[in-house]
Amino acid sequence: MKFKLSLLVLSVFSIISINAQELENSTLWKITGNGLEKPSYLFGTIHITCDASLDEDVTKALEETSQVVLEFDMDDPSMQTKMMGGMYMKDGKTIKDYVSEEDYTVIDSLFLKNIGMSVNMMQNVKPFFLSAMLYPKMIDCPMQSFEMELMKIAKSQEEEVNGLETIEEQLQLFDDIPYEDQISDLLRMAKDNLEYDKTSFAKMLAIYKSENISEMLDMMNDKNSVTVSKHQDKLLANRNKNWIPKIKEYSKQQPTFFGVGAGHLAGKEGVIQLLRNSGYSVTAVQ
To answer: Coiled coil located at which positions (predicted)?
Structure first.
């Protein structure tokens, strides 16, 4: 249950993007220079997929490093409690406070069809997390996760798993983003019973498989997703900037394998460019 909840949080970032710049087609990047004695690695993940098998170059990078750092510490024993406390709308708000009775019925029908449960049971959950509950329905296969694979290897190598931010910081994002915008996306999903999102997600999986992180970001600049297109500063840019000092510190302490959503890699304010701006050499592993 704990890992399912953590994947729910992570999955919302699988559709996030910023303007891309041209980079080599690779999801694995080597971090060297700027005083590092040994290299660290940066790996772009996708949080929900049909096949989370790790390529040989990724497993080799894991062997060369001595800790795994994800977006947040998914191994934290208190994570489930923290997540459950942060999933609900503030001030007693519910979905019914933001939509008409007719639109509420459309949303309820979406959950009855796909989850087998009425949204009445969850109407005080933040709308983005309601959307995330439906992400596994967008693929026609059992859901897998790269984060789970990375954690398995870290455990087998008796290594620590740490995070670049706290679960509380991730959950706070969905109070900072207006509930109205989140509900707009949820209602769009409901009106065509996920058809548009299934098509978009299939395209994103194909682009991820090609490791073209720049094209992935371009494709994800989709005005149909109001939450993402209006709030990329909160969802990506600000977080990327906050991560850089932590990446520096972790890498300085020991060679580290960083696993973050692939949407964070490219762009002028992406992690790759921000690390280069800080004096590191960040090169594609192909």
So the answer is: none
* DSSP summary character for residue 237: I
Is-contact 38 252, C-beta < 8 A? no
Whether residue 189 lies inside any domain: the answer is no
**Mean pLDDT of successive 10-residue segments in the chain (286 residues)?**
51 43 87 97 94 96 98 89 90 96 98 96 95 92 94 95 94 94 96 94 92 82 82 91 98 98 92 98 95
In a domain, 52, yes or no: yes
Give the neighbor-by-neighbor strand order of the sheet with 40-45. 160-163, 67-70, 256-261, 40-45, 28-32, 281-284
* Dihedral angle over CA of 22, 28, 34, 39, nearest 10: -160
Does the pTM surpass 0.85? The reply is yes
The count of domains in the chain is 1
The reply to whether 69 falls in a domain is: yes
- Are residues 41 and 31 in contact, defined by beta-carbon separation less than 8 angstroms? yes
**Please, which residues have CB within 8 angstroms of residue 37's CB and are 6 or more apart in sequence?**
none
- Closest of 14, 41, 13, 47 to residue 28, by C-alpha: 41
Residue 110 lies in a domain: no
> Which one, of 262, 234, 256, 90, lies nearest residue 170 by Cα?
234
Q: Report which secondary-structure segment, H or E, holds 77.
A: none
